From TrEMBL:
UniProt keyword Cell membrane present: yes
Species of provenance: Tanticharoenia sakaeratensis NBRC 103193
Phylogenetic placement of the source organism: Bacteria, Pseudomonadati, Pseudomonadota, Alphaproteobacteria, Acetobacterales
Name of the featured protein: Major facilitator superfamily (MFS) profile domain-containing protein
PANTHER family with a match to the protein in the record: CHLORAMPHENICOL EFFLUX PUMP RV0191, PURINE EFFLUX PUMP PBUE
Organism domain of life: Bacteria
Length: 413
């Protein structure tokens, strides 16, 4: 009977029955669909719906920005919560709670008549995104397969496709109904249903490597991993890439139009970035097991560095092409690469806590747009901010290149 390592199917494990394999595949599809909807219906759609909401709710743009900030903070600062819930009550109940919170958040948006309803919805959606998003998703993938690279790639590709589809879904629904509120009702129904289906799909699935009398999954103790320099280098690289991405998505259109590009052309470039993000995640999943997670992470950080530096240089067709290609591919790769590198170095036993800690710390990436905006106000342009981000990305790339694999403690395997 072939070994796990020899199999070309990351879920083809000889110890599993055909029924168990089918259940795991259904669970992975359900989680990917949920992540697709989360990416489509929250961050990537809100910016498109917001102008209409601002008009109808009589908000100023400061209030609109505050709600968007609550969405991000609600997502980032609650990152440890799903890990705690999954350890205590299991993945399925956590996903059920995610569905309830998401339904409540979208209902607040749909029924909002003032800033309070908008802010409450944003905060609930941030929490719901965390409960149903990448923390439980990567946890299930890490525990059901000995070769998770392709599964990670497929999962994050689904999210990237959601980022592309979200604005188009809104435009279609708003055109059909003539207003923005039905879109949020549709989002609430779709995400809540997907969360419940995912909960049923993951219920009863045992982790890969689990013995009949209990789990025997390899991995570092959490405290030992948190004390390892390699963990903090990985987290720094992930946070730096997110800071570059968040800052560039916040100001790219403005920066490009200030340099003479039309608004429509700038928007088209950002759409191309989203499409390339899906391509990058898919490629990372395909080649990740062959080239290794550290190589993928270096590629991602160098790509994000190139994206930032391309905006610090004079605008030419070459720099515009470099920006579109590197930001899209780099962002798609970094999600897969960072998750894979944590697994490769520290194992899957406590990956849930380690990935949650990385997501929590990466909330610092939200400082990128604020600092870039301050530099824009003081210097009259974004070039210096992008040059600084490029320098940070280059330093992180070198750190990943020089990073040594940590020596696992004897009881980690």
């Amino acid at each position: 009977m072939p070994s796990v390592a020899a199999s070309s199917d990351p879920l083809d494990m000889s110890a599993l029955t055909a029924d168990n394999l089918l259940r795991r595949r259904i669970a992975l599809v359900a989680l990917t669909v949920l992540y697709f909807l989360l990416m489509a219906d929250t961050f990537n759609s809100l910016g498109v719906v917001l102008p209409s909401m601002v008009t109808d709710l009589h908000l100023d743009w400061g209030s609109a920005g505050f709600g968007f900030m609550l969405l991000g903070l609600g997502c980032g600062l609650t990152s440890p919560l799903p890990a705690l819930l999954i350890r205590r009550v299991g993945t399925a109940p956590t996903l059920v709670l995610a569905g309830i919170v998401l339904a409540a958040g979208f209902a607040c948006f749909a029924c909002a008549s003032s800033a309070f309803g908008y802010d409450a919805g944003a905060l609930l959606l941030g929490l719901g995104f965390t409960l149903g998003g990448t923390v439980p998703g990567t946890h299930v993938i890490a525990t059901v397969s000995a070769q998770p690279a392709r599964l990670m790639g497929a999962y994050f590709t689904g999210g990237s496709l959601g980022a592309i589809a979200g604005p188009m879904l809104y435009l279609g629904i708003a055109h059909f109904f003539g207003t923005w509120r039905p879109f949020w009702w549709v989002c609430g129904a779709a995400t809540a249903t997907a969360a419940i289906v995912a909960a049923f799909a993951v219920s009863g699935i045992r982790p890969y490597g689990a013995a009949k009398d209990g789990p025997a999954v390899p991995g570092w103790p959490t405290r030992r991993a948190l004390a390892a320099p390699a963990f903090w280098i990985i987290v720094a690289a992930y946070t730096g890439c997110l800071a570059i991405n968040t800052t560039m998505h916040s100001f790219a259109v403005q920066h490009l139009t200030e340099r003479g590009l039309s608004h429509d052309r700038a928007a088209e470039m950002m759409s191309a970035v989203a499409i390339l993000g899906a391509v990058g995640a898919a490629l990372a999943g395909v080649v990740g097991q062959r080239v290794g997670a550290r190589v993928l992470t270096v590629i991602a950080t160098l790509a994000m560095t190139g994206a930032a530096l391309s905006f610090a240089l004079p605008q030419t067709p070459a720099t515009l092409a470099c920006f579109t290609l590197t930001l899209g591919l780099g962002l798609g790769i970094v999600y897969v690469a960072s998750a894979m590198l944590l697994l490769e170095y520290f194992g899957s036993r406590h990956n849930l806590e380690l990935y949650s800690a990385m997501c929590l710390i990466s909330t610092l990436a939200a400082l990128g747009p604020w600092l870039a905006g301050r530099l824009r106000d003081s210097t009259g342009g974004f070039e210096n901010a992008f040059a600084i981000l490029g320098a940070i990305g280059l330093a992180l790339s070198i750190a990943i290149m020089l990073m040594r694999r940590p020596h696992a403690p004897d009881h980690a395997a």
